[in-house]
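Hi support team,

I'm filing this because I wasn't sure whether my run with calcium ion finished correctly. The job status page said complete, but I'd like someone to confirm that the output block is well-formed before I use it downstream. Pasting the exact inputs I used:
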Amino acid sequence: MERKQTRNTILATLTIGALALSALPAGAALPASTAKEPVEKHCVVTVVDDTDGVLTTGPETCFDTEKEVDAYINGNSIGQSAARSGSNVIGKHFTSTNYGGSSVTVLGTTCSGGVWRPTGGWNNNIESAKHYCGSARTRFYASSSCSGSGRSIYGDASSLGWMNNKTSCVRYG
Ligand SMILES: [Ca+2]
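And here is everything the job wrote out:
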């Protein structure tokens, strides 16, 4: 009896939850033109702490375009592209293949083996990456501790292949 009541309570909770979820799209009631695709964003995160090789990044600064990211990084006017050398970029990751979708650029100091854990919408979402670590590799792991099997790149990668949408930890160098 008690077990059944518990089960009914759970079912009721699930039903309410489902109703709440199904209400979200209807409640959005956006104009058709803005309801099609998730809006792409291009963000920059900066390493603010490196303790024992774990890179902690500060709040995201996001823009509508990559050009704005480049300008932000270079401190130049919008329209100038970022120079790879001389910047502090240690990685740039994209949520779709072929450097598409949204992007997150990681500003750090060196590619000396530090690890960064993608947070929020970046976690389990990376599918391509541009490489900024010179001859050092950048390695993508499914494990949030950057252990176990991973996929290494030594140059730009238009697809992470079997690691697409699985990265929870990135090691630079
Ligand atoms: Ca993705």
